[in-house]
Design brief:
about 300 residues; alpha/beta; 7-stranded mixed sheet; 7 strands; about 40% helix
Amino acid sequence: MITAETYHVPVLLKESVDGLDIQPDGIYVDVTFGGGGHSKEILSRLGSKGHLYSFDQDADAENNIVDDDRFTFVRSNFRYIENWMQYYGVEHIDGLLADLGVSSHHFDDETRGFSFRFDAPLDMRMNNRAGKTAADILNDYTEEQLADIFYLYGELKDSRRLAKMIAKYRQNQRLETTQNLMDALGVQSTATNGQWKKDMAKAFQALRIEVNHEMDALREMLNGATNLLKEGGRLSVITYHSLEDRIVKNVMKAGNAEGKMNQDFFGRVQTPFKLVNNKVIVPNDEEQTTNPRSRSAKLRIAEKL
């Protein structure tokens, strides 16, 4: 059994939960339950009348469900937060926490295909019970579609070359495993040039984002959070790459994912939030040393006006 201890080490635990400014009788949502680290910290600060709803679509996360009357686990993608809160009769929440990206469990699970460290099936689904796999995308998408994915979600400048190599490879053999993908791109796992690791990480990131529709889900979740948060409610979000961080920053500053500033007659920016921390919070040196996943983490906190 996969336990919370082996599933995922929470990043910026104290800082992110502190950012919620927990009210003991409040209603809170953790949209990325994972190993339950952040959820347990939130529960430790709630009183008997408080309640926490935690979301996760990964079946493995269900092994970490907390036995607490103040806790409700929601087996769903966080993009549907408004629907689920309506289902539970919740009109407004006092705070929402999101630890975005991929958990350490996903990277370390040899069977899920999230990492090129292992030769595994090209799956990459957060919810491995439904949806297209990375293999489906690599074998069925057009060369142009693949190039767009690598460029938009992996920010790879040579995206067209990579897509062409994949298209050529699949003429003779389907891409089914992570090793197939590395072979298609001409990568040797014993290569000493560190650049190939960076490029492969970007390529895997791009595929993972496409498989899980991460950018669309993030936009929908943040829109739902904006509608659900009561006045004075807090939004505490940890990001790991520039694509998701840009969306979070735009929503907190402008109220929309595109960052379009709306102004009133007097030129004042109309936004549903005010920033709690004008400068992003990053893990200290000790946390970055003990938890490598935290090295690219950025925490942003905003309060609903």
